[in-house]
Specification:
- The chain is of the alpha/beta class and about 425 residues long.
- About 30% of the residues lie in helices and about 25% in strands.
- Helix 5 (about 110-120) packs across helix 6 (about 130-140), helix 7 (about 180-190) packs parallel to helix 8 (about 210-230) and helix 8 packs parallel to helix 9 (about 255-265).
Length: about 425
C-alpha cells in the first residue's frame, strides 16, 4: 500500500497535490510519503512479532534511500540502520539512529571507516572475507577495543530480480562460503580485537518467491547448529533483506506475515538468538515518486511518439541500469484513448530511455507525470551527469510538506571545482 492516490481529479501524496509541490519546488522532484514509510516498517515489525520474533532488529538499508529526513522518520518508528560506508554511518547518526542499532556491512571497508565505526560504537561489523577479519582485529586491538563481528556467509543460493542485484551465488563478491565461515568464526574467537557474535547472509534484492530465502535460511540454521556444537557462542543471526516491492509489472511479493511465518518455521527450536533484518526496497520503494514535466511530444512520420521529459537517467537510473519498470501516471489524467509513447529524457545517451511503447493517457507539453515506486534507489543513485543539477527531495506528512534536500544552484555545482594552480 502507498499513499499516492487521485484526489479531486489529480494525484496527491497523502493530502498534498503533487502539482502544488511541482509548482513550488520545480521539476523533476522526488516526493516521499511519511505515512507509507512508517506503515511499511510497522507491518514488517508486527509480522515478526506475531511470528514470535519479538527481539528482532530491523535495520533499514540506508543505501536504498539515504535522505536524513527519511532515515529520521524510520528511526522515530524504531528502525535501526544497515550501512556500507562511513558516510552512511554519519547519516544514520545524524538522523537519530542509535549506534547500538547500526550494522556495518560491505566488502571493502577501509581502515579509517573501521576506526570510525568502532569509535561510534556500532552494534556489529559484518565481515565478508578473511583479510577483513584480520584488518578489523588489528584496528580494534590498536584502539583497545574488541569489535562485535558477524561472519557474512554466501550460501550459494540464486535469487534477486536481476543479475546485478543477485548477491548469494558462489560467483558473487559477497561473503564467504559455509566451510570458510566455520573456520573463520573459530579463528575469530581466539583473536584479541574481535568477538564473534553471529553470522549473516543476504542473497539478493527484489525477491518475489520465498523458496530461495527458505533454502538460504535453512543453511544458516544448520551453520548455527554446527558452530554451537563446536562450543562457540552464536548470539545473532542476520538474515538480510531482499523481500521485493510491487513494481506493478512484477509478481506480487509475499506478504511480510508469510515471510515471518516461514522464518519462524525454519528456525523452530533454535533458541537464544536475536534476529536482524536489513530491508530497504520493501520499505522505501512505494513510499516515493519522481514527478517530471513533459517538455514536448515528438511525433515522427513513421509513427513513433517520443514523450520527452525534463527528468533523465541521471535522476532515475534504474531503467537504464537494470531495465527496471516504473509505472508512469499523469498527475492530472485526461480522458481519451491510450497512446503508445517512448518515454525519454534530455540526456545525450540512447540509454536515457525510461520505457518504449508504453500505453499512457494522452499527454502534451506542460503536463506532469509521476514515476511510481521510486522511493528506493532513485535519488540515492542520482548524479550530475551532463552537468544537470541534482534533483530535490520533498517529504510529506498529512497536509504538510518540506523540502528535505534542496535543488542546488549552478553556482553551487561549479563552486565545488577549481582551476589548477598553473591555469590562468
Amino acid at each position: 500500500m502507498n499513499h499516492f492516490e487521485l484526489s479531486g481529479g489529480e494525484l496527491a501524496c497523502e493530502d498534498v497535490p503533487l502539482s502544488a509541490i511541482a509548482e513550488a519546488v520545480g521539476t523533476p522532484v522526488y516526493v516521499y510519503s511519511s505515512a507509507t514509510l512508517v506503515r511499511h516498517f510497522t507491518v514488517l515489525r508486527d509480522a515478526l512479532m506475531a511470528a514470535g520474533l519479538q527481539d528482532s532488529l530491523i535495520a533499514f538499508a540506508v543505501k536504498a534511500n539515504p535522505n536524513v529526513a527519511v532515515l529520521r522518520t524510520l528511526a522515530e518508528a524504531g528502525a535501526g540502520a544497515d550501512v556500507v560506508s562511513e558516510g552512511e554511518i554519519r547519516r544514520a547518526l545524524a538522523a537519530g539512529v542509535p549506534a547500538s542499532r547500526i550494522v556495518f556491512s560491505g566488502v571493502g571497508k577501509t581502515r579509517g571507516e573501521i576506526e570510525f565505526a568502532l569509535t561510534a560504537g556500532v552494534a556489529e561489523i559484518n565481515l565478508e572475507s578473511e583479510p577483513e577479519l584480520r584488518l578489523v582485529n588489528e584496528v580494534a586491538h590498536a584502539l583497545g577495543k574488541r569489535a562485535a563481528v558477524a561472519i557474512r556467509v554466501n550460501p550459494d543460493v540464486e535469487a534477486g530480480g536481476h543479475a546485478k542485484i543477485s548477491t548469494g551465488k558462489a560467483e558473487n563478491k559477497f561473503g564467504v562460503s559455509l566451510a570458510e565461515a566455520e573456520r573463520l568464526y573459530a579463528n575469530a574467537a581466539n583473536l584479541p580485537g574481535v568477538r564473534p557474535v553471529g553470522v549473516a547472509c543476504h542473497i539478493g534484492s527484489q525477491i518475489t518467491d520465498l523458496a530461495p530465502l527458505e533454502a538460504a535460511f535453512g543453511k544458516m540454521r544448520a551453520l548455527v547448529e554446527r558452530l554451537r556444537a563446536e562450543g562457540l557462542s552464536v548470539e545473532r543471526l542476520d538474515l538480510g533483506g531482499g523481500l521485493g516491492a510491487p513494481y506493478f509489472n512484477t509478481p506480487t511479493p509475499p506478504e511480510p506475515s508469510a515471510y515471518a511465518a516461514m522464518i519462524a518455521r525454519v528456525m523452530t527450536g533454535l533458541g537464544g538468538l536475536q534476529f536482524a533484518f536489513e530491508p530497504g526496497r520493501m520499505i522505501a520503494a512505494n513510499a516515493g515518486v519522481l514527478v517530471a514535466r513533459v517538455q514536448h511530444v515528438h511525433a515522427r512520420p513513421e509513427g513513433r511518439r517520443f514523450l520527452v521529459l525534463d527528468a533523465a537517467m541521471n535522476d532515475l537510473l534504474r531503467p537504464a541500469m537494470y531495465d527496471a519498470y516504473h509505472d508512469i501516471r499523469p498527475v492530472k489524467p485526461r480522458a481519451g484513448e491510450p497512446i503508445a509513447y517512448d518515454v525519454v529524457g534530455p540526456i545525450c545517451e540512447t540509454g536515457d530511455t525510461f520505457t518504449r511503447d508504453r500505453l499512457l493517457p494522452p499527454l502534451q507539453a506542460g503536463d506532469l507525470v509521476a514515476f511510481m515506486t521510486a522511493g528506493a534507489y532513485g535519488a540515492a543513485m542520482s548524479s550530475e551527469y551532463n552537468s544537470r543539477l541534482l534533483v530535490p527531495e520533498v517529504l510529506v506528512k498529512g497536509g504538510r510538506y518540506a523540502v528535505v534536500r534542496p535543488r542546488p544552484s549552478y553556482d553551487d555545482m561549479l563552486a565545488r571545482e577549481q582551476a589548477a594552480p598553473w591555469q590562468a
